[in-house]
Amino acid sequence: MSISFHNEDTHFDLNKKIRHRNWINKCIVSHSRDPGTISIVFTSNAHLLRMNREYLNHNYFTDVITFDYTEGNVISGDVFISIEQVKENASFYKVLLEVELRRVMIHGVLHLMGFNDATEAGKETMREMENEALNLWSKEE
Predict the structure, then answer these.
(1) β-pairing, 34-43 with 74-82?
(2) In angstroms, rounded to a whole number, what is the distance separating the alpha carbons of residues 14 and 101?
């Protein structure tokens, strides 16, 4: 089991890396899954747009793209997050950058666990699970 944080095409330093690793692990375990190898890569809007075009044939900005390598119950994959988009989201929703970043991080991990937000019902379910995860973070402060 390993959760790592990287930068690609951006300079971003995630604070409290160990706490974030532990939190993500607890979120995964709370869904009766096992943490595997997960890389969270912080990047730019331009880089994520290129990835969105190349791998998903989508021509728009997004905040997160996941590549799922999960096998059975072991959750593994790469989660690419646009720090620029997360900053825009935080401003739009009037929340702290750290809160929005955690929401997007766990959103990506939920995708690795097989959850989908392609429908309104799926979006609602994912939002509830994101809120549960954010509450788990707050309880540990």
Answers:
(1) parallel
(2) 10
Q: What is the per-residue pLDDT across 44-85, written as a single tens digit (0 to 9) for each? A: 999 999 999 999 898 888 999 999 999 999 999 999 999 999
Domains of the chain: 2-139 (3.40.390.30)
Rounded to 5 degrees, φ, ψ at 40 are -110, 120
Q: Which residue, among 38, 52, 41, has the nearest Cα to 112 in the 3D structure? A: 38
Separation of alpha carbons 34 and 104, rounded Å: 20
Amino acid (1-letter code) at residue 63: D
**CB contact set of 28 (below 8 Å; sequence gap of 6+):** 34, 35, 75, 109, 113
The structure's pTM equals 0.95
Q: Which two tokens stand for residue 82?
A: 């646009």
The residues with which 49 forms a beta bridge, in sequence order, are none
